[in-house]
Amino acid sequence: MHIFLCEDSIDGIFTGIYDAWASRYGHKNIKLCINDTITYELFSEYITVTPDSEKSEKVGRTIIARLGMEVYQDILQAVLAHDDKKKNEHPDKADCIYRTLLYGFSLADGHRILQALGNPYIARVFELSRSTGNEAHHLLGFLRFQELENGVLFSTIHPKNQVISVLAEHFTDRLPQEHFMIYDATHQIAAIHKAGSGYFLTDASNLNPDVITRLSPAEKEYQKLWCGFFDSIAIEARKNPKLQSQNIPKRFWKDTVELASGK
């Protein structure tokens, strides 16, 4: 077995797909794995994949041309998902995506490939894509910006999946004339947007916590007013913590001003 070890990123997995296809080893003799989750097997050859943006773009263009933009978006969401299933229960994320594309490319019309849920690889890709899509949808509603002393709008999120690019794209469109930064504390990356331009992703593992806690006087006042309003409209007899947790899952509370204290 020839096992291609991929970085857990769009460029990493797409480059792995490109290299695996071009290897001519035969699809049955190939497997793709995320390089930090591999359990080494005897009698297998391990090939480390170096992410290559040109190869990744070629794979992306092929998916769009052969399977359509909707499938491409679903595949991207699957790539960005956190695969928390045990490997002995489900095949690796990268390999599932590879097998799904192989099946799709074999069809005369692969635009509805992700409806073939009887195929375990496709079912897994569908599940991963839905997980990312659902979390991004939640965060588009729950994400809160705070104004820092320097006027930058700042938000911290703790997502399971790598949804920051989806959020950054949305808020770049909604807030084109604002300087803002979205910090993904789980994956230690940040999306930075400069007013009047696009956004870019950057490593945020060395982010200074002191800077991002310096709120503007106006922000402090608005937070005080909002929390006061939140408390004033609450009806003690109608408190329903279970329903509240269903509407806003508890893992989002730490990033929500009025719920951060555990109310």
UniProtKB/TrEMBL annotation:
This is TIGR03915 family putative DNA repair protein. It comes from the Bacteria. It comes from Roseburia amylophila. The lineage of its organism: Bacteria, Bacillati, Bacillota, Clostridia, Lachnospirales. Residues 92-258 form the DUF4130 domain. InterPro entries: DNA_repair_put, DUF4130. Pfam families: DUF4130 (PF13566).
